Amino acid sequence: MTEQKIYKRAQGFADKILETVPFPLLLLDAELVLEGMNLAFCEKFRFSSDDYEGKPLPDLGPAWGDRELCEKLARVHSDHKDFVGFPFEGDFAIGHRSFLLNGTRLKGIQEGERFIVLSFEDVTEFQGHILELTRERDDERGRHQITLEQLRHSNRLGIIGRLTAGVAHELGSPLNVVLAQASLLKMEGVLTEDMRDDLTVIEDQARKMATLIRGLLDFSRINKESAITLNLREALEHTIKVLKPLSKKLGVTVELVSSCDDPVLINGDQFGQVMTNLLVNAFDAQPNGGCVRVSVAEPGELKLSRELGEGFLVVSVCDDGPGVPKDLRDSILSPFFTTKPVGKGTGLGLSVCQSILQEASGFLELSTDQEKGCCFHVVLRRG
User: Domain 3-122 sits in which CATH superfamily?
Assistant: First the structure.
């Protein structure tokens, strides 16, 4: 048998082996010119070997001209090193896919012939699964971090509560004496007008201090009143009715958008305190008049910081005021933090609301979706 026949027989035998391999294979010469592709490659990438054999690799399409891939293939011969698991992805006739490539040097039958055999492993689905697991892991880490921050915040609030309770009690008694003495002195008939004015100033400032102390006590008090089943719509209507004279005076209309008669678990007086605080804040945010919208929704209808099941309802109080600047939103529920002018607020109202709701297995949060105005979400457990 002549050498040429042996060569052709060996080539035919090699071609048959390539065709039976179930995964895509591509044969390139030293200049990265296509020498052959097996049936699995043609079916995978929807190519015809007759159309591309003898052409440079980049002719297969934009993805195949990737600079990093071509440099990697060129180094197979120059550095005499095979490679395994080279990541390769792009847009093909079958869509966007991700592969792992293995490149192996191969000597030809004739002297000086050098080839590269490329094998392809499609890892698109596996990569998607890994990305999904990574996202789930990151989400879990995020939830864990939020829980830790909430625990730290609760611990800080407990310490502040105990401290403020002691200070408030110590200040309350002498302050009451100051108020009483100022009132008695004003009854004296020998006082000049200037003296009466001075006593009035003392009374006014003492009352402001008394208001602050009551806020401190409300914030620090651990309320032992048990939660009761409360009709949510009736409770909202009652609070809005009580505040109607104030809203009318300020030129603010209150719209209640709710057909929900479901009960919630919270003490009625405490819920009234929460809603009164939020509504009055909304009134203050619109000194020239405006509208406040109160609505009830399922947790899934809103973008909340926590995932909640069907066991909760959300009351939203939204206004058209200037809103809360983004750099202040993380501090809005902190004790003693206020966006109101000096003398207009103690910075304890929202902290008290948060404490009340947490005792009732709920919570308060500021919406981050508002482009205009301010919107607070009151999360309550269903009754």
Answer: PAS domain (3.30.450.20)
